[in-house]
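**Protein record**
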Amino acid sequence: MTKNKIQVDQKGKLKCSIEYTLSVIGGKWKPVILWHLGEDGTQRYNQLKKLMPGITHKMLSQQLKELEQEGLINRKQYNQIPPKVEYSITEKGYTVKPILQMMHKWGEENW
């Protein structure tokens, strides 16, 4: 087992690889968004919204923006009327898939 490297930030707060991972993909919706994009392929905004009925417009927009900033998803905008935007998972995003698969398996076994 690899030892977790503990780092301290400028404010003296402990930082570790698990904290970093959770800051990037943690929360209620980011793993679900990544799962759908990884399993179902490219999706438009409304398609994602339908796959996650409990998410608000504001939350979905925010989570998509954060995942894009982290380089886990791509956002492709088509300049047409009506506007069309598609989201897809990146190569970096696919590296999270084994984690999500383990979470999925654990959830199915322990639900």
